[in-house]
Amino acid sequence: MSKMQVGVVFSQADSGTDPDALRRWVRRAEEAGFEHLLAYDHVLGASAERLGPGPFGAFDTPAYTNEHTFHEILTLFAHFAAITETMEFVTSVLVLPQRQTALVAKQIATLDLLSGGRIRPAVGVGWNFAEYQGLGVDFGARTRLLEEQIDVLRLLWTEQLVDFDGEFHHLRGVGINPLPAHPIPIYIGSGAAEPVLRRVARKADGWMPLLIPGLDEITLVDAVRRLREICDEVGRDPATMPIHARVYLGDGWQAGVEQALDLGVDKLSFGFNRLANPGHTHEQHLEAVLAAKPELDALVG
């Protein structure tokens, strides 16, 4: 079994607007040996009043509002790729249904080419209905749209000319150029409800569990076990379903890493727990994970 790849979580909401500080952050993370950088995606923020009382997924109140900073994720990654050498860049998650599929295909293919293959998209449906409305997309159709988008992305990345007639996409004799020089895996980032895990088994090249201990009823252990069972049921080798998990600093974080190792997790993102420890700067986030990295490396081996 190959060694688990370890990366760092880039907290968009705490990252600020100083370009030099952003560049220093990512360079220091790469120099420290983190193999990837994971960042979240939002295009529009909304006020708490606009979003209403919730709940919002596992949260009682919205995790992010218009007051939180979010750099456009693919633009951010393009900039970071130009100032780094080896670090990969992971979306967690790209809220795909609120974006034009062909444009995303073109953006990711371009970023993949210019970065030397260092972009890895994980996609999902998000939670912010106001964001969908602001971008002109039907929030209620988001899961059906996501499934079709994954099919269209793969076609646009592999065929010079695409013909496709679906519920949401109607392509005839069109394509992007240049095509990616290699397959680009598409992870799905999601919770662990039964229909969601079945979608992952049918559509995804890998799974990114978005589970919050203490808030989500389903544990990571149970979710991974069930996903592998579903893969067997549908005739898919569970070994073809890599898992990208994350662990946040806090009491007992070491047990989270050990659990990921026991589960055979392929990739792990390590971050500062901003919700449990509010009020810290982005630089302090990095200092905390850098201080813990020797112990993390010893655990991972």
Describe this structure in words.
The protein is an alpha/beta fold and 301 residues long. It has one domain (5-300): Alpha-Beta Barrel (TIM Barrel), CATH 3.20.20.30. Helix content is 39%, strand content 16%. It contains ten helices and twelve strands. The protein has helices at 19-31, 48-51, 73-82, 101-115, 129-134, 142-158, 194-203, 220-233, 253-262, 282-300, and strands spanning 5-10, 36-39, 88-91, 94-95, 119-120, 122-124, 162-165, 170-174, 187-190, 206-209, 244-248, 267-271. A six-stranded parallel β-sheet has the order 5-3-2-1-12-11. It has a four-stranded parallel β-sheet with strand order 4-6-9-10, with helices on one face. Helix 3 runs parallel beside helix 4 (101-115). It is globular and about 55 Å long. The chain starts with a strand and ends with a helix. The model has no long low-confidence stretch (mean pLDDT 96).
